[in-house]
Amino acid sequence: MENKDLVWDLESFNKQQRAQNFVMGFENKLCVYSANVEQLYTNYNIFFPKEENRKLVILPNPYAHYDTFQGITEDAVKATGLYVIPAESTNVVGGLQMIIPLKSENTKYRRVPLAVGLRLINQKRPPERPFLPVVMKGDLRELDTETPCLHLHMLQLSNLPKLSEMELGDIQKVILKRLHELATRSS
Known about the structure:
By secondary structure, the chain is of the alpha+beta class. It is built from 3 helices and 12 strands, in the order βαββββββββαβββα.
């Protein structure tokens, strides 16, 4: 595969099958960013090919070229420190939770249901600049030896001056639609 950003290594995972099951729940729900080719993929499939031992491969839908956005520069994608984890890791059955870092001396982070976390984040943002999460290579990690987690990056449309207002609107619309589907599924 030419784009190495779309091949993720799972070699270091203690619970590889659990990580695979976890990440499959995000297929076509979170957009995938590739800095290598400056593209954002919104329509893709996740595979675990046997010949690519312990690798996750993201394959963009070749028949949906309009679901791949070009010219997404690396400076428009920022790390957030936000993580999504399976809720069962916190003794809650089903769904997803978000880990939100806190600036408190007593508590380093807070775990909340995904939909609640997204709502909290967006309450602190201007309505015209909603939280637009994307994932990229290296974002699938282990929180501990048992729990897979997914780090979220954020797309900042204001850092994409070469794209038209229509393109920016389309990107925002698709990310928010997929995010809504994910949050609804996990609640």
